[in-house]
Specification:
Layout lengths: L2 E5 L2 H11 L7 E5 L9 E2 L7 H10 L4 E4 L2 H5 L2 H7 L4 E2 L3 H8 L1 H10 L7 E4 L2 H11 L3 E5 L8 E4 L2 H10 L5 E5 L4 E10 L2 E10 L2 E3 L3 E4 L4 E4 L6 H21 L5 E11 L2 E8 L6 H5 L3 E2 L2 H9 L9 E2 L3 E9 L15 H5 L4 E5 L2 E4 L2 E4 L3 E9 L2 H14 L5 E2 L6 H8 L1
Parallel strand pairs: 1-2, 1-4, 2-3, 4-5
Antiparallel strand pairs: 6-9, 7-8, 7-9, 10-11, 10-15, 11-14, 12-13, 14-19, 15-16, 17-18, 19-23, 19-24, 20-23, 21-22
Bound molecules: adenosine monophosphate.
Length: about 425
């Protein structure tokens, strides 16, 4: 089949790499792509959020499957336009993408379907928000309602922080949430209508600094699977959270199709939903793709064409770890244009692939463009070996304007050592 992949980040580089290895993939086209993706796919420089441009590209290239990587085209309804034009699409329509686009929508769906999640109040009144803070107590979580890419969330450890977050919202829509205690893990499930099948688990590191300190980022590293999400806990999360969500979406006439990424808090009372994303995580995707067994393109086509119930995604049983190399200044004002060398040397380390998240080809060679620049991924039989290989590879890369965390996977490492 001929496949069109939308997006231009590290997630899409990993998707392209995995799709390229699928026996059923003939032609692979990416829009707009990046220099890493160009290793596996032909890149077309169009705006992935422009439905007209995407449809015309798909039509001229005889595309059998469109895989939508990032959230922006999903929320913008590019999936709807493509389906209306008769294309098979991996990724939900805009109304189902609300599971990510609106925190309030997801919270209300959880309440209506008894899906375990933090107790909450949706409000546009700062007085009501303050009353909710009194009710839930400190710590408390305050979220702007809308597609905030993680930035609109304040975990307030003091009353003052909570007040400041409420003031900052003015009278904009807010979700005030009870604070959940536990460790976080991500569960990735393939969903098509009422059918939901687990694909993989992962854990990531959102803070920019060592020891999970400093400002939030898109993610500084990840590993898969997440051993803390045991088979038993994963099945519980599927049964209590993901499957009821799939059924509820189908019942309201907005069936979900694609990958549903459940951000879970593993509390003493079991897994609870923190949030949904309607696409693969970045950098979790980079850690998951090397673990997928079998024909990945066929699996995604199966989801897109309503055959998920007959499919059984399989993993290799190995472990993968991804270290993000970012441009200095990230997440504030990342330095652009820094020269990157010796990626080939890094890829000489066994099991390593260097995915491109924010690079471009300049006159001097490959240079940084954007905050997160590379996602260095290693796969091995054990978590510890994957981690060691990933860091050995990172050390090979010559990128003076870059930095990375040296403690990716610290929780797992501590458990391994215990
Ligand atoms: P979200 O964008 O909803 O995923 O929130 C971003 C981060 O805030 C999550 O990854 C958690 O670390 C934290 N968080 C969100 N909601 C809660 C909650 N109810 N209790 C504790 N931590 C939370």
């Amino acid at each position: 089949m001929n496949i069109l992949l939308l997006g231009s980040g590290g997630r899409e580089d990993a998707l392209a790499w995995r799709l390229r290895q699928s026996p059923s993939c003939d032609k692979l086209l990416a829009a707009p792509g990046n220099p890493g993706i160009a290793r596996w796919a032909e890149c077309a420089d169009i705006d992935p959020c422009d439905p007209g441009a995407v449809i015309s590209l798909a039509a001229t290239n005889d595309i059998d499957l469109v895989v939508i990587g990032p959230e922006a085209p999903l929320v913008a309804g590019v999936g709807n336009s493509l389906r209306d034009a008769g294309f098979a699409v991996f990724g939900p329509n805009a109304d189902a993408a609300q599971l990510e686009g609106s925190k309030g929508f997801t919270k209300d769906l959880c309440r209506a379907n008894a899906i375990p999640t933090a107790d909450y109040l949706r409000t546009e009144s700062s007085a009501e928000a303050r009353a909710a803070v009194d009710r839930f107590g400190i710590p408390v979580v305050i979220k702007a309602d809308g597609l905030a890419a993680g930035k609109g969330v304040t975990v307030a450890m003091t009353r003052q922080e909570a007040e400041a977050a409420i003031d900052a919202a003015g009278d904009g829509p807010l979700v005030i949430e009870e604070f959940l205690e536990g460790e976080e893990a991500s569960l990735f499930a393939l969903v098509q209508g009422e059918t939901a099948v687990p694909l993989a688990s992962a854990q990531d590191h959102k803070r920019v600094g060592q020891g999970d300190t400093g400002p939030n980022t898109g993610g500084m590293g990840a590993y898969a699977p997440a051993p803390i999400l045991t088979a038993e806990l994963q099945e519980r999360a599927m049964e209590e959270i993901v499957r009821p969500t799939a059924r509820a979406m189908a019942a309201t006439g907005t069936p979900f199709s694609g990958v549903l990424y459940a951000g879970l808090m593993l509390t003493a009372a079991g897994p609870k939903l923190i949030e949904y994303n309607v696409r693969f995580g970045d950098p979790e995707c980079e850690a998951i793709m090397p673990l997928i067994d079998g024909d990945f393109a066929e699996l995604l086509l199966g989801v897109a064409t309503g055959k998920l119930a007959d499919m059984q995604p399989k993993l290799t049983g190995k472990h993968a770890l991804t270290v993000v190399v970012a441009a200095r200044g990230y997440p504030g004002s990342p330095l652009s244009g820094g020269l990157i060398r010796d990626i080939e040397a890094a890829e000489q380390v066994e099991g390593v692939t260097v995915f491109h998240a924010g690079t471009t080809l300049g006159e001097r060679g490959l240079v940084a463009k954007g905050g997160r620049v590379l996602a260095v991924t290693a796969v091995a039989d054990t978590f510890g070996n994957a981690r060691a290989r990933a860091y050995r590879a990172v050390d090979q890369i010559d990128f003076a304007d870059g930095f990375h965390r040296t403690d990716i996977g610290w929780r797992e490492l501590a458990r391994d050592n215990a």
